[in-house]
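User: Sequence recovery, please. Input:
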């Protein structure tokens, strides 16, 4: 099955966890900060590892996500991991 990285803002953690549970219930692997990033670990490194490991990335888009200080950097840093984002027209 596929491996999904769920990107979210802390205000949307309950939605992100619900999505991750649904994915895992279907037999997929879900990578989610709340479950897989150990407090005190290098956040940027964990993000890079998650992006490299994931087949798909799901962003929990909300006003919180779009207005947060770090999430824009987070999803932009994930773009190189998406094959379609690497294609040049």
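Assistant: Recovered sequence (89 residues):
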């Amino acid at each position: 099955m596929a491996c999904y990285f769920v990107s979210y803002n802390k205000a949307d953690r309950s939605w992100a966890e619900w999505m991750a549970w649904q994915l895992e219930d279907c037999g997929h692997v879900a990578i989610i900060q709340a479950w897989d990033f150990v407090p005190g670990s290098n956040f940027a490194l964990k993000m890079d590892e998650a992006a490299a490991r994931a087949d798909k990335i799901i962003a929990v888009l909300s006003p919180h996500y779009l207005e947060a200080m770090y999430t824009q950097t987070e999803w932009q840093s994930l773009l190189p991991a998406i094959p379609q984002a690497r294609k040049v027209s």
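The two ends are 30 Å apart (CA to CA).
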